[in-house]
Amino acid sequence: MKRQYRITRANDFKRVRQNGKAYSHPLVVILVLQVPADAKRFGIIVGKSVGNAVKRNLVKRRIKSIANELIYKINKNVDILLIAKPSIASAEFIDIRQAIEDGLRRAQLIVA
User: Fold this and answer.
1) Are 95 and 27 spatial neighbours (Cβ–Cβ below 8 Å)?
2) Cα–Cα distance for residue pair 80/13, rounded to 1 Å
């Protein structure tokens, strides 16, 4: 994912966590915050509860791949934070993709 589409600063992560609207799924929590700037950015959080470093990195790579495809379908200027739940470690790629797409649809960021 290109740097312009990533949330990189701790203050930005904190702002989205405190002020963002949450959409939960058994695999992932999606936090969405409208921003005035002309930008669509993703942040990914995969905690130690997901598994060891190998599993966490696999989950991050999968989420980055999905986010990279979906960034162009998003129709608003938003910061999106994807927080992985422990059950994501045993999920298939297609299930993770479906969970993220469902969350973004519920947030009305992508249409059908």
Assistant:
1) yes
2) 9
